[in-house]
């Protein structure tokens, strides 16, 4: 049964989405800094999701539940404001040697993805530029 008393008013213009839509820890650095959206932000967001999974999860336990790892170094990402989070992420991307040390901390089940993550990083952050 329809309730015609609950009528929605539609405008001729679709509602505008916030440029800050999404889970902050997975957002691109440029998006965190309020820059205009580009397709590279989407690719960078994928990179951060993959990075987060490789650091924080280690497959399934014997009961079929996801094994979580607490990595205190990245815990503050959950609470940082946009500018601080952008700076934290930039700090990871500046030097390739530094990033290579970080990814050695991937969970054992994701170590095989290290070459893929390194290659993806080179395309998203050429010469360590953010």
Automatic annotation (TrEMBL):
Superkingdom of origin: Eukaryota
A Pfam family annotated for this chain is Pkinase_fungal
Q: Where is the Fungal-type protein kinase domain?
A: 4-54
The protein's matches in InterPro entries, at most eight in alphabetical order, are given as: Kinase-like_dom_sf, Pkinase_fungal
State what protein this is by name: Fungal-type protein kinase domain-containing protein
The species is Lepraria neglecta
């Amino acid at each position: 049964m329809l309730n015609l008393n609950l009528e929605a008013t539609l405008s001729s213009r679709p509602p505008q989405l916030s440029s800050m839509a999404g889970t902050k820890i997975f957002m691109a650095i440029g998006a965190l800094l309020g820059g205009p959206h580009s397709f590279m932000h989407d690719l960078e967001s994928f990179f951060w999701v993959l990075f987060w999974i490789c650091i924080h999860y280690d497959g399934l336990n014997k009961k079929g539940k996801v094994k979580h790892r607490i990595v205190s170094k990245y815990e503050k990402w959950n609470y940082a404001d946009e500018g601080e989070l952008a700076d934290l992420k930039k700090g990871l991307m500046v030097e390739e040697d530094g990033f290579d040390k970080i990814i050695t901390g991937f969970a054992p089940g994701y170590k095989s993805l290290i070459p893929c993550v390194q290659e993806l990083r080179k395309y998203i952050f050429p010469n360590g530029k953010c």
